[in-house]
Amino acid sequence: MRWVEEHGKADYMSTKQAICAYVAREAFRFLKQGIRINAICPGPTDTPLAQANKEMWLGFGADYRAEVGIEASTPLEQAYPLVFLCSDAAAAITGITLISDAGYISSGITGSYPAATPLANMLLFR
Known about the structure:
It contains eight helices and two strands, in the order H-H-E-H-H-H-H-E-H-H. The chain has one domain (2-123): NAD(P)-binding Rossmann-like Domain (Rossmann fold, 3-Layer(aba) Sandwich). By secondary structure, the protein is mainly alpha-helical. Strands 1-2 form a two-stranded parallel ribbon. The model has no long low-confidence stretch (mean pLDDT 93). It has helices at residues 2-6, 12-31, 48-52, 54-57, 62-68, 75-86, 104-110, 117-123, and strands spanning 39-42, 97-100.
């Protein structure tokens, strides 16, 4: 923990990257024990915590959502991908972080929504 603090990595994005790396790294070891490991990387989700910090948590991607005509996700909409990943329907899926952000990062990767490209590049370590 000291290293994280000393190197300025005690923040949301750095810890999310660490979780994504952990999921990918541990997939093989866990699967040898019959355990699948996956995660989601949710987009803005309208929760009480998000409402208490609305500018920070729900302001992110608001321009994208406005342009495509959607609202921030609900907790139930984020639960659906988790239910899928935990179900037998996802038996062949392990070691992935599923991005459940209504296409924001994909739009940044492809350049179809250029404002998302910097974050997409950061998440992909580009």
